[in-house]
Structure prediction request, 150 residues.
Amino acid sequence: MSADTLIRRAVAEDADRLTDMVQASGAYQGAYASIISGYRVGPDYLARHSVFLAEDPDGRLLGFYSLILEPPELDLAFVADDLQGRGVGRLLVEHVLGQARAAGLTGVRVVSHPPAEDFYRRMGAERVGTVGPVPPKVTWERPELWFTVR
Prediction:
């Protein structure tokens, strides 16, 4: 992770790059593919929610997240597959919690992709429950976590 990493608000022109990152995610292949099938991050979504992206100095997209303020929830969080484990996710979580704090939130809910639960717990989230399947796209249970904003 470079000290030159830039985190900025996503704009309409970023929508296709964000969609490409979602669609290329190795975490959503195989049994989990249905949840992102046909999913797009559109300009309207970017206008409605607090979406931030991380870029390197050359403009390469490293990852992004979406924070919904009401009710407070981390809706999307993705890191480029080849950069996982290098601090991008940690940087984004720190940023989302800073945004939540600035918005006056006391916490942020995360309905986690099952393989990502350990990451969120390492970042300080506590498991508070389980969210049941929502067929036909989601046919598995997902961990529900909570970040307390201090």
